[in-house]
Amino acid sequence: MISRLQKYLFFAMLVASAVMAAFLIRLRNRAEDRMQAQATAAPAAMGESAGNPTKTVTMYVPNDLDDSLTTVERNIPLPVDENAQARVLLENLMEAYRAPGSTHPMNVAAGINDVYFLAVPQGKGQEGAGDGGQMAVVDLSGALAVAQPSGIEPETLTLLSMMATLHANLPSVTEVHFLVDGQPRDTLAGHADLTRTYLASDAERRPSPTGAGR
Amino acid sequence: MRWTEAAALGIAAVSVWMQQNPQPPLPPAPAAPSIPEVVGPPRVQPPRFVVVVDAAHGGSDTGARTSGGILEKDITLSLSARLRSTLRAHGIEVVMTRQSDMDLLPVNRAETANRTQGAACLVIHATATGSGVHLFTSSLSPAANERFMPWQTAQSAYVTQSLKLESEIDSALAHAEIPVSLGRASVEPMDSITCPEVAVEIAPLVGGHVTEARPITDVSYQKSVVDAVTAALEQWRSDWRQ
After folding, report:
1. In this complex, do B180 and A66 lie within 8 Å of one another by their Cβ atoms?
2. N or C: which end of chain A has fewer CB within 10 A?
3. How far apart are CA A134 and CA A119, in angstroms?
4. Least CB-CB distance to B188: which of A193, A212, A213?
5. What is the rounded average pLDDT for all residues in chain B?
6. What is the ipTM, given to two decimal places?
């Protein structure tokens, strides 16, 4: 026979356990968010705090309404390391996506996990016979793939804007390959093919705002 | 008896039987047709004009979701069915890659299109982003048509024709006062299709100086797009072999 007091005690402990579990999960999520935010801000902060020179960079911002890329120039501090430069460039592009009144709205806090460079074999690239250029492997975050509006046009514009921005500021980049959370993936959000390697010059075939749409 | 002796006996028996049963004489060969004095050009069967319509997505692959919560796979299917009816009403033969809500791999879509040897292949998509109709052709560079093409780049032999078809559809949509944007894209299974091919992505109409805001699901908007595409394909019927 279980006494009433024991029953009350049992239920009180059960409730206390549930509350503690919920509290711990919440604490864990907050800590994870804080760590992610720190990791995202690292290259930009590195560029600013380490006294790196401010450079004028060209970014290609998509416009969903006329299916074009618009060039925007900005002065931003760029780190010396090329990988960090590429990441800072793309993070600044993400800021343009997030900005109020964006022509390619996408609400994603951390869109780029990392950017790696691989040498393109000689004769394969487009930067002359002696230099095959570099392939930029852009590791997108899963959050970007989720936030990306689905459709051929919006997905293609996202990829082209990244490729054009990288190629404009780092001319040695001749090819671009995309991963999501470090893994190969079939499409960005159901349409644009991520299994292939893109030529950076593909983005140059995009019409300017004056030539696109009607 | 050894096997060699048995074989010799068999051969001898067959030769005896053949001597006793000689072959019947062959029937006389038919008389050669008299050669006409004037020979005209050979009669060539005109190539069939078939349009392949691929309703993108389907089954577990839902595609995009519109602001009204309607799935892209449903819009593409209904739009494709509407296009098929209109094209057939204009005497154009149509093959659809899917006619119901079913899973279909890109490779199966390409197989259907390639087996049909269509005069035009239209891949129908829908998106909630942008305005009007987006036309896309493969991002592959044009290449010469060869007997065997790599599966991943088979469309490269048709890119020039695909661009012409895109231009016809662009003109027809512009004539219908529907905003159009043109682009190149890499979307499965476009690069593996061996016919002139265009992806037609319908987006909502954003209100402007000449256009009135309309959602993708607006029936009159869909009809005006289908009518324009049909007009373009009628024009293509007389142009595609040039």
Report:
1. no
2. N
3. 5
4. A193
5. 85
6. 0.78
